[in-house]
Amino acid sequence: MAGLTTVRLDPDGPVALLTLARPAKLNAMSRRMVAELTSVLEELAADARVRCVVLAGEGRMFSAGADLDEFRDDFGTGGADPAATEREARAGARLAAALESPDIVTIAAVHGAAIGGAAAVVAACDLRLFADGARLVVPEAAMGLPLAWGGVERLVRDLGPAVTRDLLLTGRPLTAEEAVARGFAMERVAPGDLLDRAGRIAALCATRPRLGTSIVLERIRAVADRSRADGVDDDAASLAAAARDPEALAAARAYLKSLGPAS
Fold it and tell me: Which of 51, 68, 75, 135 could cysteine-pair with 206, CB 3.0–4.6 Å?
């Protein structure tokens, strides 16, 4: 696929490796990256030859979450634009939906950290591998913002409400060890073995008949997701409300200030 600048696609028969490729920015998820990821995933899901996609990050970590330069533009000066915030929430929800397409099996290969929106992306994948030392962190509460992109619903689905409350309200990390212990990740592997292990699991999944796999994924999601039918609309409305709330805006600006000057 031509024209990609924030992600890299390496197809290998029925398996594709899709890499977040902004290592100098810790794979921060810019609007362009969200759009490119969504476009690639939707094209792969429409390609009958592709059965499985491994999603990984280049460099020090899986992803630092939202692009702070764009976030500063939205929340750091003046008043936030609720309409723009809602559009971005819907774009992220579309990305998460693309990851949950029943036509492909998605595997998140997480190393370093998956922060904020990246945690929602990991939660949208079918299978998850964590490298030793990897962690999932959701700092949105410190900024007065809800986790969007269906992340809350998916975390509740796979971790339960008590653990999700803990992670979202305190901002503490979900470690690789805990992710495996709670069934959120299928296994923990050495960092140097992460992509090889993910590739071998993907190759195994790719041997399964596509129709049968699609039916299995759809039935599992139908059971697991009955409680989140309106999650996408709720996410967008919640973020728009936060963009109008003076206390949330002040918290977001204070959080950004604590991170230091923009790069």
Answer: 51
In tens, the pLDDT along 8-52 reads 999 999 999 999 999 999 999 999 999 999 999 999 999 999 999
Amino acid at 89: A
Which residues, at least 6 apart from 257, have a Cβ–Cβ distance to it below 8 Å?
Answer: none
CA distance to 4, 9, 37, 102, per residue, from 1 (Å): 7, 8, 11, 22
Phi then psi dihedrals of residue 54, to 5 deg: -100, 125
**Which run of H or of E encompasses 56?**
strand 52-57
Q: How far apart are CA 81 and CA 204, in angstroms?
A: 46
CB 19 within 8 A of CB 10: yes
Return the sign of the alpha-carbon dihedral for residues 232, 175, 206, 193: positive
Q: Rounded distance, CA 106 to CA 15, Å? A: 10
Residue 219 CB partners (closer than 8 Å, separation 6+): none
Tokens representing 51 are: 């059965």
| Per-residue pLDDT tens over the stretch 134-166 | 999 999 888 788 888 999 999 999 999 999 999
Phi, psi (5° rounding) for residue 66?
-60, 145
CB 72 within 8 A of CB 254: no
Provide the 3-class DSSP secondary structure of residue 81: coil
